[in-house]
Amino acid sequence: MAGGVINRLRNGLWRDNPGLVQLLGLCPLLAVTATFVNGLGLGLATLAVLVASNALVSATRRWIQPEIRVPIYVLIIASLVTCIELIFKAWFPDLDRTLGIFVPLIVTNCAIVARAELYASRNPIGASILDGIAMGLGFAMLLMTIGAFREVIGQGTLFARMDMLIGGEPMRGLVLADQGWLLMVLPPGAFFSLALAIAAKNAIDRRRLESKAPIPRRARKLNR
Amino acid sequence: MTDRPVWKSGVTLAVIAAICTALVALTFQLTAQRITDNEKAFLERNLQPALAGLFFDSPVTESRLTIPQPHELPGTESAIVYRVYASEEPVAALFVVSARDGYAGPIRLLIGVAMDGSITGVRVLEHRETPGLGDRVETTKSDWILQFDGRSLRDPEPGNWKIRGDGGSFDQLTGASITPRAIVKAVKATLTYFAANRDALFTAPADPVDDDSGDED
Question: Is beta strand B107-114 parallel, antiparallel or unpaired with respect to B119-126?
Fold first, then answer.
C-alpha cells in the first residue's frame, strides 16, 4: 500500500505530471503564472477542486450511467468551482481580485475532467482522492515553479505580495533586482518558461535512464 | 444494461443537479456575510487614501450618489460620487470614474477633490495595463500617482494638464506614456466637472441604502 501511495505521487508529480507531460490545463498555467503567489493560489484552488471532484465522481460512479457521465462531471466540477470561488471571495479577497476570471475558469481545466474520466470513474474513493492529491500537487508545483521563475527574471522579486494568501501588510517580497526582463512577465515569457520546464524534465529523465542499465520499457500512452 | 430507459438517466441527472445546487447554496449561505463585509471593507480601505490629510466624520460609503449617463465625467458607464462631510459641512467629493483610453481597456480611478477644487488623492482601482510598465500607476509599484496630490485647475493651468512628453507639467513613466496620458486627462475632466457642478453635487439625495444588498434572499 505504501508503495502504491508513493507510486501515485510520483505519477502525479513527475511521470504523468498534468502540465509537464499531459500538457493539460495550459490556459490557466500560462495566464496566471506571472508571480509565485498567483501560481500558488491557483495551484491550491485547482488542487482542492481536483481532490473534491475525484472524490465525488468516485463516490457516485456506481449510479452514473455511461451515457450521461460527461454532463454529470461538468455539473460536479462547476458546482465545486463555484464553491471554491465563494470561499476565495470570503477568505482571500485580494488573491481573488488578482486571479480574477481564472478562478471560475478552473471549470474548463481539462486536467480535472481528464482525471474524473480516466481515474475516478473506475477506482475506489480512497485511491481517487490520492490521485487527486498527486495530480493536483503536480499541477500546483509546476504553477509555483514557473511563477517563481518568471517573477525572479521578469520582475526581480520573489514571494512578492504573499500577504494576499497569508494576510497582513502588502509585502514586496525578496527584492533581487530593481527591474527585470519584462518579456518574462508578458505572455511570451509563459511559453518560454513552460518550454524550459519541459526540456529540463526531459533532460533529467534521459540522464537518469542513461545512468541505469537500459531496460526495455513499455511505451506509455500519453493522454491528451 | 445497454437499453436502460431514458427516464432513469434523467432522474440520475436531476438528483445530482439537486445535490450540486444544494452544495452551492450552502456555501453561499456560509460565505455571503463575509463576502459583503469584505467588499465594504475593501471599498472603505480604498477610499481612505484618496482623502489624505482631510478631517471628516461621516461614513463615506453611505453618501453614495450615482450619476447616470450622459454626464461630462470620464467613462461610458455611470459615475459614482461619495460625498464627504465634517460636522455636516461638505469637505470633499470622491469620484469613481473610468479613463477610457488606457493601453489595455478602461482604468477605474478614484479621485478625491476638496471643496476648494484641489486634489486630495488619486488612486487606480482597477486596470489591465502592462505589468512592469503601465502598472506602475499603482502605489505598491511606484509613487507616480502621488504627484496629483494638492494639484488643482490653477496648479498647473488647465493648458498644462498634460504629461511632459506632450508639453505639460506631469511626469510620465519610462516606457509607458499612454497610461499616464489617459489618467491625466481623466483627472482634469473630473476637476472641470467638479468646478461646474460643485453645489448641485452636494444637494443631490444619496442613493437608497438598500441599493447594494437588495437582491439578497
Answer: antiparallel
